Amino acid sequence: MKLRYAFLLGIGVTALLTAFLFLPISFQIQEPIPVAAAKAATISLVDRIAVEHSTKETTPAREEVLKEEPSVPPIPQPENLPIQEQTESHTQTQEPMVQQVEKQAAAEQAEENTPMLIDGYYPVESVTLAPVFDRALLAARIVYPPLAKRQRKEGLVIVRLFIAESGLVERIVVEEDPGYGLAEAAIAAFTSFKTSPALYQDTPVAVTLRYPIRFTLQ
């Protein structure tokens, strides 16, 4: 009995498989999707052709413009001149320049060596020989002020002397005054005082200098 059922089940399964094999099955075939044209490539190609075309059109025009420019005649160079003419012209132009430089250098040197005058007087540092004072005669002309002597006052007086070419003291300017009549005593001592003249390159000149006088009590 069991064998009969198994045999019938096997026959039924085989029939079903056979039926499935012969049944019609419909398949839907998809149509291919249309691909867009490569517009970017076409545009690039057109632009390139247009550029090449414009370049070919403009190149002859540029050459024509260059051809129409007037030619400039060559400027003769000094090398084209004979060697003798070059040497003579160079020497002629060099000599005035050298002379001018030498004159300028001499003028600058003379200006540096020329001392600056103070109110028309040479500074004593710039003269060749300074004036010489007779100290004994000058000391004899100095009178100690009575007021300073009574109060036992001492001090240093500095005067600027302006001495003429003859050696005569023409002007006296007090630069330091301790008071008590000491400066007036110094002015009185130098008034109409005469020294040996100052010399600048063996020539007597007017000179100015500072002279200190110290007043002390013994």
From TrEMBL:
<dbReference type="GO" id="GO:0055085">
    <property type="term" value="P:transmembrane transport"/>
</dbReference>
<dbReference type="GO" id="GO:0031992">
    <property type="term" value="F:energy transducer activity"/>
</dbReference>
<dbReference type="GO" id="GO:0015031">
    <property type="term" value="P:protein transport"/>
</dbReference>
<dbReference type="GO" id="GO:0098797">
    <property type="term" value="C:plasma membrane protein complex"/>
</dbReference>
<feature type="compositionally biased region" description="Basic and acidic residues">
    <location>
        <begin position="55"/>
        <end position="70"/>
    </location>
</feature>
<keyword id="KW-0653">Protein transport</keyword>
<feature type="domain" description="TonB C-terminal">
    <location>
        <begin position="129"/>
        <end position="218"/>
    </location>
</feature>
<comment type="similarity">
    <text>Belongs to the TonB family.</text>
</comment>
<keyword id="KW-0997">Cell inner membrane</keyword>
<feature type="region of interest" description="Disordered">
    <location>
        <begin position="55"/>
        <end position="81"/>
    </location>
</feature>
<protein>
    <submittedName>
        <fullName>TonB family protein</fullName>
    </submittedName>
</protein>
<keyword id="KW-0813">Transport</keyword>
<dbReference type="Pfam" id="PF03544">
    <property type="entry name" value="TonB_C"/>
</dbReference>
<dbReference type="InterPro" id="IPR037682">
    <property type="entry name" value="TonB_C"/>
</dbReference>
<keyword id="KW-0472">Membrane</keyword>
<keyword id="KW-1133">Transmembrane helix</keyword>
<dbReference type="InterPro" id="IPR006260">
    <property type="entry name" value="TonB/TolA_C"/>
</dbReference>
<dbReference type="InterPro" id="IPR051045">
    <property type="entry name" value="TonB-dependent_transducer"/>
</dbReference>
<keyword id="KW-1003">Cell membrane</keyword>
<keyword id="KW-0812">Transmembrane</keyword>
